[in-house]
């Protein structure tokens, strides 16, 4: 019987994945890659004829606590990885966003999914995105070949870095089968300094002041009125050993005293707040609104929102102002307005949540310049000559 | 006889030399084109000085636009292009050939913009690594990756080789600290990838460009992350009676949830060489030494150092010395960062930079010693212990061709060992010409073919830095 007999194909190993891909290619089929399905709404709508699932490629391959590295197969639920790490007081450094709140999705986020989406969180400002912590991966390309890049060591410049290229490629280059991460110790303590009732400009200015201080801020967000309180809150997170966190809280409160910095949230109160920032929970409801994620120079965040005027129904800032999460009407006009407001400021906008038909009509990712589009097409073809994987997911007809 | 081969020179390019020079002269001002032999001689090698090839000409553009015109001309006239920053590559990444022009970035050395509020600087590619940090140091900021050659090496070269440094353990390597580049393609397009924002849109071409050794295009400008310096930093020296004790101490520090800003390892010979040069106060009666640096306010550093010292004591540390002043700290780092230069005063050497999983470090050190001894050569080890990035300096006499051959053979054996132990050929120096023919040790044919196809998406004719990275045979793949 053909391996292509089912509408969802779930290879048991890399070799079988290669076989499926070669056979699908011979038939001219298009495959949509699926992990836990929690980010299915991210990108332009799926157009494949069948689904290629990582569900049977599961399991932690190794965890070396003393080397601060972990390797897991793509279909491994993130919760399994996090449990293995927690047992040794370690964590994935980049605080991956869990998209379930925004999409109202069930299922379990997987290792492959967080690589594909380059899923990152508030700690992006201090330790980087997923792409900065993935040190190796394996994938099956559009020729059905198993390819590796990187490895299991912290520093590796041997050949082209195809690891980062695949982080955030949304499965358009191949089926990632396995990823290796570098880890960090889980901070012993965390505290969040809260500044109340600042307007956007003043809030982002406060974040800028804190990020320009030597106190190693690991989270810098600003949430508006109605997001848990009736007033805006500007949030600064400090993490590390208890004595170090205590010391830095004291110094940072002094630095921000003129803005009313007084106390700091600790423990679960602090953690809950940062989970909400990470997952953009504040914008999850109402569910019929479109959600945008906009990355730009931090000091320009408030300017961008101001340019949108009443079109911005709700918004908050992460990354010191450099990441704007935004709710708008799900319309082509609003989409055009977001792109127009951003154009003079630089940066890029992604339509994270919208109905399928809108995501099919407008650019979900920032449109590419002709030169970048040419290079992107060349890179895509070098992995996937027939455009088999996640066709049209990032760019229409690519 | 040196072993590393170069591809045959393209006689068709040599035959057109006069026309090519005329074409370059039409693009560049007189002082931007070097055609005479004496002038070109200065560009025939980099820090892999055992190999040298005279370029056809040297072009020194002053702007992205001039780079673009040069690239278009070279594509149209079928000339190979070897990009060059300061020529400090240890892997031969900047060594040209007779059928290539060197595109040197030394005249593009301006800092274009410093934005402390948004914590980035936009610079031309020929700016030195250290110049960026020096420009923002009065305001308390720095650019994090700090290769030992940072006084001379350029940001363009750092991007090409994805350079590291001693402080990467905490702050990451070049690719983690670059926000954007202005790339000039072989077609002569000027393409901005990324910018002041923390992540770039679309496929992560920025991540691909970092470490691509000048084979995807010319990086003419870069936007780099600036980081606010810690309040203070303090290195401590720990001496041990054995490599095993030192390695286990490193693992225990990390196991305790401590990530110091740097953890550097030196063996007895390296300590001796560096101490004689820098008078840093290194202990001379130990087999292994760690330089562990912590950062922060006084109280924070004291607390962290107390934790580290307790771990070191539990791992049979024999001597322990905390820096008591900024001058002392500078001396300690001067010793470490001059390891290559100081070794060069004692003997000729080649330096490998394979990386191994940190748990395999004691075995890697022992077997590196055995390999070198089997060739009758001495080896000094100095490396980044926190990330397993080794740097065996294999000593030899360059005037003895047999010894050079032995040193190169020993180096290759050490790299094979690194791969065998689960590591890689190069952690931060790049492949260049030096490790090109070992690539199959680490990658399958399919892996390499995939990389070469990606490269071809930028440069289908292999005009850019052609003799590097990929094995010379099997290029048709």
Low-pLDDT runs of chain B: none
- Care to count the β-strands of chain B? 18
Distance between the termini of chain B: 30 Å
What would you call the quaternary organization?
heterodimer
Strand count, sense and barrel status of the largest sheet of chain B are: 7 strands, antiparallel
Query: Count of helices of chain A?
Result: 14
| Morphology call of chain B | globular
Overall mean confidence score, pLDDT of chain B? 94
- Largest interface, chains and sizes: A-B, 85 and 96 residues
The CATH topology annotation of the largest domain in chain A reads as Uridine Diphospho-n-acetylenolpyruvylglucosamine Reductase, domain 3
Sheet-strand content of chain A, in percent, reads 15-25%
How many DSSP E strands of chain A?
18
Shape of chain A: globular
What does the model show?
The complex is a heterodimer of chains A (398) and B (477). By secondary structure, chain A is of the alpha+beta class. Chain A has helices spanning 14-27, 78-86, 100-103, 111-116, 124-127, 130-133, 162-166, 200-211, 242-255, 267-278, 301-308, 332-342, 356-361, 370-383; strands at residues 8-9, 31-34, 50-53, 60-64, 69-73, 90-91, 134-140, 146-150, 175-182, 184-185, 189-196, 219-223, 233-240, 264-266, 290-295, 314-318, 323-328, 348-353. In chain A, the strands form five sheets. In chain A, strands 4-5-9-7-8 form a five-stranded antiparallel beta sheet. In chain A, strands 12-13-11-14 form a four-stranded antiparallel beta sheet. In chain A, strands 16-17-15-18 form a four-stranded antiparallel beta sheet, with helices on one face. In chain A, helix 11 (301-308) runs antiparallel to helix 12. The longest helix of chain A is centred in the N-terminal third of the chain and has 14 residues, at 14-27. The radius of gyration of chain A is 21 Å and the shape is globular. Chain A starts with 7 loop residues before the first strand and ends in a 15-residue tail after the last helix. By secondary structure, chain B is of the alpha+beta class. Among the domains of chain B are: 111-228, 2-Layer Sandwich (Uridine Diphospho-n-acetylenolpyruvylglucosamine Reductase, domain 3), CATH 3.30.465; 233-327, Alpha-Beta Plaits (2-Layer Sandwich), CATH 3.30.70.3450; 340-420, 2-Layer Sandwich (Alpha-Beta Plaits), CATH 3.30.70. In chain B, strands 15-12-14-13-17-18-16 form a seven-stranded antiparallel beta sheet, with helices on both faces. A five-stranded antiparallel beta sheet of chain B has the order 5-6-10-8-9. Chain B is globular. Classes of the chains: A alpha+beta (398), B alpha+beta (477).
């Amino acid at each position: 019987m053909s391996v292509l007999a089912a509408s969802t194909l779930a290879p048991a190993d890399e070799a079988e994945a290669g076989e499926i891909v070669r056979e699908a290619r011979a038939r001219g089929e298009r495959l949509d890659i699926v992990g836990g399905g929690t980010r299915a709404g991210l990108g332009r709508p799926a157009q494949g004829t069948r689904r290629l699932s990582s569900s049977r490629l599961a399991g932690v391959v190794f965890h070396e606590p003393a080397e601060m590295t972990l390797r897991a197969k793509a279909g491994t639920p993130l919760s399994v990885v996090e449990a293995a790490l927690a047992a040794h007081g370690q964590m994935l450094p980049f605080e991956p966003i869990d998209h379930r709140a925004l999409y109202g999705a069930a299922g379990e986020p997987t290792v492959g999914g967080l690589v594909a989406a380059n899923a990152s969180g508030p700690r992006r400002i201090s330790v980087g995105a997923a792409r900065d912590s993935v040190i190796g991966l394996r994938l099956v390309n559009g020729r059905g070949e198993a390819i590796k890049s990187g490895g299991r060591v912290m520093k590796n410049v041997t050949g082209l870095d195809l690891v980062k290229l695949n982080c955030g490629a949304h499965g358009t280059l191949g089926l990632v089968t396995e990823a290796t991460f570098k880890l960090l110790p889980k901070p012993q303590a965390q505290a969040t300094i809260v500044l109340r009732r600042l307007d956007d400009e003043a809030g982002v200015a406060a974040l800028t002041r804190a990020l320009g201080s030597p106190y190693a801020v690991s989270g810098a967000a600003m949430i508006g009125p109605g997001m848990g309180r009736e007033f805006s809150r500007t949030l600064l997170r400090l993490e590390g050993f208890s004595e170090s966190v205590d010391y830095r809280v004291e110094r940072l409160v002094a630095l921000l005293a003129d803005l009313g910095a007084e106390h700091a949230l600790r423990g679960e109160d602090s953690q809950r707040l940062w989970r909400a920032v990470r997952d953009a929970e504040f914008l999850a409801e109402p569910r019929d609104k479109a959600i945008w994620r906009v990355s730009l120079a931090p000091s320009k965040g408030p300017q961008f929102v101001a340019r949108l005027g009443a079109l911005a129904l709700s918004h908050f800032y992460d990354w010191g102002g450099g990441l704007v999460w935004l709710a708008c009407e799900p319309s082509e006009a609003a989409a055009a307005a977001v792109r127009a407001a951003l154009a003079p400021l630089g940066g890029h906008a992604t339509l994270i949540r919208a109905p399928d038909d809108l995501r099919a009509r407008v650019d979900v990712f920032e449109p590419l310049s002709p030169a970048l589009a040419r290079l992107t097409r060349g890179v895509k073809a070098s992995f996937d000559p027939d455009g088999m994987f996640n066709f049209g997911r990032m760019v229409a007809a690519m | 006889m040196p072993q590393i081969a170069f591809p045959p020179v393209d006689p068709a390019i040599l035959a057109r030399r006069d026309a090519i020079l005329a074409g370059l002269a039409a693009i560049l001002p007189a002082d931007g084109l070097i055609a005479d032999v004496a002038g070109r001689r200065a560009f025939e090698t980099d820090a892999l000085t055992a190999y040298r090839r005279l370029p056809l000409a040297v072009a020194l553009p002053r702007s992205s636009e001039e780079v673009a015109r040069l690239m278009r001309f070279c594509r149209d006239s079928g000339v190979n292009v070897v990009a060059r920053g300061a020529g400090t590559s240890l892997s031969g990444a900047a060594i040209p050939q007779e059928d290539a022009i060197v595109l040197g970035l030394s005249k593009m050395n301006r800092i274009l913009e410093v934005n402390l509020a948004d914590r980035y600087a936009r610079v031309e590619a020929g700016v030195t690594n250290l110049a960026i940090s020096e420009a923002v140091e009065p305001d308390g900021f720095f650019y994090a990756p700090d290769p030992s050659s940072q006084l001379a090496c350029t940001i363009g070269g750092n991007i090409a080789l994805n350079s590291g440094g001693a402080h990467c353990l905490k702050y990451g390597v070049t690719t983690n600290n670059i926000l954007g580049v202005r790339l000039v393609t072989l077609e002569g397009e000027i393409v901005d990838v990324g910018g002041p924002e923390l992540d770039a849109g679309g496929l992560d071409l920025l991540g691909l460009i970092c470490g691509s050794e000048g084979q995807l295009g010319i990086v003419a400008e870069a936007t780099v992350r600036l980081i606010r310096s810690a309040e203070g930093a303090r290195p401590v020296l720990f001496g041990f009676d054995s490599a095993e004790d030192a390695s286990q101490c490193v693992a225990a520090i990390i196991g305790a949830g401590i990530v110091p800003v740097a953890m550097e390892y030196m063996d007895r010979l390296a300590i001796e060489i560096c101490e004689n040069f820098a008078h840093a106060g290194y202990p001379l009666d130990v087999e292994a030494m760690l330089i562990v640096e912590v950062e922060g306010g006084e109280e924070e550093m004291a607390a962290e150092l107390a934790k580290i010292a307790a771990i070191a004591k539990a791992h049979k540390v024999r001597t322990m010395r905390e820096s008591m002043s900024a001058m002392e700290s500078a001396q300690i780092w001067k010793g470490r960062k001059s390891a290559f230069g100081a070794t060069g005063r004692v003997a000729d050497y080649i330096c490998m930079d394979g990386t191994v999983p940190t748990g395999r470090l004691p075995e890697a050190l022992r077997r590196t010693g055995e390999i070198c001894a089997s060739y009758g050569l001495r080896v000094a080890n100095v490396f980044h212990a926190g990330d397993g990035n080794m740097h065996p300096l294999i000593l030899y006499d360059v005037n003895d061709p047999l010894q050079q051959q032995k040193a190169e053979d020993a180096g290759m054996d050490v790299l094979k060992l690194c791969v065998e132990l689960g590591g890689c050929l190069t952690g931060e120096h790049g492949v260049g010409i030096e490790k090109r023919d070992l690539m199959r040790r680490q990658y399958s044919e399919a892996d390499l073919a995939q990389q070469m196809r990606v490269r071809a998406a930028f440069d289908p004719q292999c005009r850019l830095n052609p003799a590097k990275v990929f094995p010379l045979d099997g290029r048709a793949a």
